[in-house]
């Protein structure tokens, strides 16, 4: 029986996330806390689809015939191609009518699962047979680190890869297949995220590394660039809060209404920081590609990017888009020569970029001890890691 394992990264914003609606530069990176999907094809006689998503407390056995009946609905093909929003409503009704969810996280997870399965199957000529999918994540759910998109990326890659296996032997994903995975994930993003975010998470979770983008005239006209920077180690500190993205957007709008000039100046400042970060990342990439790397230059570039991210965080504080706990983490990091920045809008996590040099190890250890003493948990991970990937095949 076919078995394989797929994983996809999370996402953090390095800078510019609050300025995207204003046509400014945004820099986002893949996060090394990955979502992992394990797939196993089941014997035909079982006649079930087994779904295990323990992080949202889902364990279901769905009769395969229920899925077959769904695909026989009138206008099924036209809906998935021409009316995805209407089709989403059908999927929502399906999981609600059958009593498959209790919490909002379960509802969203199952909507993504069935939406992608039922959209990808006809387009990729996937023969849906009994299978078991087990999906876990190291990302905190609903924490603003791209967990729904990482989840969707694993599922889209799973169904596409299974389709490829049914046709011939397959190993890994081609550039064309990655493009299709990203498009499938984007179609689910449009339904599951607020459009004001002008989201590019599907690019980050599919391709990994760093994505720099700006929306020229709304979310449908995006200029983006993938920067192949090497993995960079970070501390991810949990500020023990949950920020509301909608509330943050409202706060920014109210502040702009009171003092448009001051807000515009700060947004322009963040945009300049973002553009400078893009240039620094290009230099880091170029330095890593050399046979003889200039370690002194690399250390200088890391320090430079730390300073830029901290400047972005200071601007967020001036815009009332920070939080005392986040400010405390950044202040503690500063005591040890490090710089912190909020990991994105709607998240209570702070990223602290770590230099490559080992001479900072003692200070890093003391920083973690201080953060823990102040009640903030810390994990070590990376940014600019690989995108969706096939980890195991049996």
Automatic annotation (TrEMBL):
Looking at the record, the residues that make up the Galactokinase N-terminal domain are 5-37
Cellular component, GO annotation: cytosol
User: Mind listing the UniProt keywords for this protein, alphabetically?
Assistant: ATP-binding, Coiled coil, Cytoplasm, Kinase, Magnesium, Nucleotide-binding, Transferase
Coiled-coil positions = 281-308
Pfam families in UniProt: GalKase_gal_bdg
- Entry's Gene Ontology molecular function annotations: ATP binding; mevalonate kinase activity
Q: Which GO terms describe its biological process?
A: carbohydrate metabolic process; cholesterol biosynthetic process; isopentenyl diphosphate biosynthetic process, mevalonate pathway
The yes or no answer to whether the keyword Calcium is present is no
**InterPro entries per the UniProt record, alphabetical:** GalKase_N, GHMP_kinase_C_sf, Leu-rich_rpt, Mev_gal_kin, Ribosomal_Su5_D2-typ_SF, Ribsml_uS5_D2-typ_fold_subgr
Protein name per its UniProtKB record: Mevalonate kinase
């Amino acid at each position: 029986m076919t078995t394989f394992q797929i994983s996809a990264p999370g996402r953090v914003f390095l800078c510019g996330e609050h300025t995207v609606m204003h046509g400014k530069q945004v820099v986002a990176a893949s996060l090394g806390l990955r979502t992992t999907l394990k797939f196993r094809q089941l014997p035909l006689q079982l006649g079930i689809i087994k779904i295990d998503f323990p992080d949202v407390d889902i364990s279901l056995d769905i009769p395969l015939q229920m899925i077959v009946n769904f695909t026989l609905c009138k206008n099924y093909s036209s809906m998935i191609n021409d009316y995805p929003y209407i089709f989403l409503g059908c999927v929502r009704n399906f999981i609600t009518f059958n009593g498959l969810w209790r919490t909002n996280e379960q509802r969203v997870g199952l909507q993504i699962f069935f939406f992608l399965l039922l959209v990808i199957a006809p387009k990729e000529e996937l023969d849906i047979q009994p299978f078991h999918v087990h999906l876990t994540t190291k990302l905190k759910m609903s924490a603003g680190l791209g967990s729904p998109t990482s989840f969707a990326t694993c599922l889209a890659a799973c169904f596409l890869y299974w389709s490829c296996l049914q046709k011939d032997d397959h190993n890994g994903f081609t550039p064309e297949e990655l493009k299709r995975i990203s498009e499938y994930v984007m179609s689910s993003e449009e339904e599951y995220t607020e459009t004001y975010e002008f989201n590019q998470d599907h690019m980050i979770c599919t391709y990994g590394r760093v994505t720099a983008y700006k929306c020229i005239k709304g979310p449908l006209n995006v200029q983006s660039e993938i920067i192949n920077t090497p993995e960079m180690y970070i501390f991810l500190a949990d500020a023990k809060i949950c920020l509301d993205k909608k509330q943050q957007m409202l706060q920014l709008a109210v502040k702009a209404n009171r003092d448009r000039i001051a807000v515009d100046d700060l947004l322009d400042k963040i945009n300049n920081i973002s553009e400078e970060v893009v240039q620094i990342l290009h230099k880091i990439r170029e330095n890593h590609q050399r046979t003889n790397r200039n370690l002194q230059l690399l250390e200088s570039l890391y320090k430079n990017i730390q300073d830029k991210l901290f400047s972005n965080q200071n601007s967020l504080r001036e815009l009332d888009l920070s939080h005392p706990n986040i400010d405390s983490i950044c202040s503690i990091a500063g005591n040890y020569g490090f710089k912190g920045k909020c990991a994105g809008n709607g998240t209570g996590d702070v990223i602290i970029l770590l230099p490559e040099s080992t001479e900072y190890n003692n200070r890093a250890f003391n920083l973690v001890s201080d953060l823990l003493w102040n009640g903030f948990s810390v994990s070590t991970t990376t940014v600019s890691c690989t995108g969706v990937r096939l980890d195991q095949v049996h």
